[in-house]
Write a structure and sequence with these properties.
By secondary structure, the chain is of the alpha+beta class. The chain has 15 helices and 13 strands. The strands form 4 sheets. The protein has a 5-stranded mixed β-sheet, with helices on one face. About 3% of the residues have low confidence.
């Protein structure tokens, strides 16, 4: 069985995440074709509404190429229709070519959500709401939830009125798609009018869907356990992954992956050639990147802690008095190591990128070289956010 040293595992994961070379994080141009390829390589990019510095999907893509332009992403979604929005483990931007595989998710979501929402709104009323909202969009074209406000009073379901719940249900189950956004507001249309016909009409059977989901997850993870394969897309059950592994065990390469603390190596699987790729993975550039908490590299918190020794928690929902760091603190990557975390915010009324605190990780010295590289990354973020200057709090460098 091949053993992958911890350092090589980190090199490999950083490269697979797009932060280790090429356009990813090295300053190369990222125009529309490169942007689409980057999202295909990642598999999906998570969308989140929190905007302390920049919204998550923009920050994730900016981290992989300084030429990233928000308008290119909008064009790929709204004009080229090369990407669509739906769910993985959370709301995400996904290549439209994946839509046929998402039909299996839609079927499962329909059964799960139908039971849940019908019990809240009432079976007959919910069916009527779905039919009414569907017919209006089919007849009159794209619509937002606010276009239906006043139809019925709020039911209290996330303070959604029934039409909003119907819209979300049809979006989560593939009947509707997001044609565009106005600010943060979704503009819904019939999926067949948004998804390119070749992807909307394509069908894959269950076995092909499971095979695709497992192989594509492993391709992006490099090496993974059963649970990590199942969790990557949030498309499969552990049983489906177990059955796929059993069918393909002769092809899969068993590996052991060393942990950062020198503990017992973790058993995992890899596709042919991936163990060799991990052993040959080059070290990433010695640059600093301030990454989004929703960055693909950070997606699996347990894996990050096991392989990088970096324990991270978003403290948005932690009472202020109990926060260890802050409301929304960003991980800081230097080369193949997590160098710390930083509390930085775009304060537009001050036209400033405000650095409130930087906490180096244990064993990381705030050397002149590290602080210079951190300063260069902050300057990159300042320009991306369109702010005039960087302001540092008096006590911004926090040493234990």
């Amino acid at each position: 069985m091949t053993t992958i040293p911890n350092l090589k595992a980190r090199h490999h994961l950083i490269a697979l995440s797009g932060l280790g070379g090429g356009t990813g994080g090295t300053g190369g141009a990222m125009r529309r074709p490169q942007l689409l390829r980057t999202i295909n390589d990642l598999g999906f990019v998570q969308v989140d509404s929190v905007n302390v510095l920049e919204r998550a999907h923009h920050h994730i893509l900016f981290s992989r190429g300084t030429g990233y332009r928000r308008t290119d992403l909008s064009a790929l979604i709204e004009k080229d229709r090369s990407l669509f929005e739906n769910w993985t483990h959370d709301a995400s931007i996904i290549p439209s070519s994946f839509f046929p595989y998402w039909k299996h998710r839609f079927a499962r979501e329909k059964a799960r959500l139908r039971s849940r929402w019908k019990s809240h709104f009432g079976a007959e009323d919910f069916d009527l709401d779905i039919a009414r909202v569907h017919d209006r969009i089919a007849r009159d074209g794209p619509a937002m939830a606010r276009d239906f406000e006043g139809d019925k009073p709020s039911s209290g379901w996330w303070d959604w009125h029934p039409s909003k719940a119907a819209l979300e249900y049809m979006w989560r189950t593939g009947e509707l798609a997001i044609a565009r956004r106005e600010g943060l507001q979704k503009v819904y249309d019939l999926a067949e009018r948004v998804i390119p016909p070749e992807h909307f009409s394509a069908e894959v059977d269950h076995d092909a869907f499971v095979d695709w989901a497992c192989r594509q997850a492993l391709t992006r993870l490099g090496f993974a356990t059963r649970g990590e394969i199942a969790g990557f897309w949030a498309l499969l059950t552990p049983q489906e992954v177990d059955e796929w592994i059993a069918r393909n065990r002769a092809e899969l390469t068993p590996v052991r992956v060393e942990t950062v603390d020198g503990g017992k190596p973790r058993a995992a699987f890899a596709l042919p050639g991936m163990a060799e790729a991990a052993l040959d993975a080059p070290a990433p550039p010695d640059k600093v990147r301030i990454v989004s908490p929703f960055d693909p590299l950070m997606r699996d918190r347990a894996r990050m802690e096991r392989l990088f020794g970096f324990s991270y928690r978003i403290e948005i929902f932690v009472p202020e008095a109990k926060r260890q760091y802050g409301y929304y603190v960003y991980p800081v990557l230097r080369g193949e190591r997590m160098a710390g975390r930083i509390d930085v915010k775009a304060e537009r009324e001050r036209d400033a990128l405000v650095v409130r605190a930087f906490w180096p990780e244990a064993g990381v010295k705030p050397s002149k070289a590290l602080l210079a590289k951190l300063g260069a990354e902050l300057e990159r973020l300042r320009r991306f956010a369109g702010l005039g200057r960087i302001d540092f709090a008096d006590d911004w460098l926090r040493l234990s």
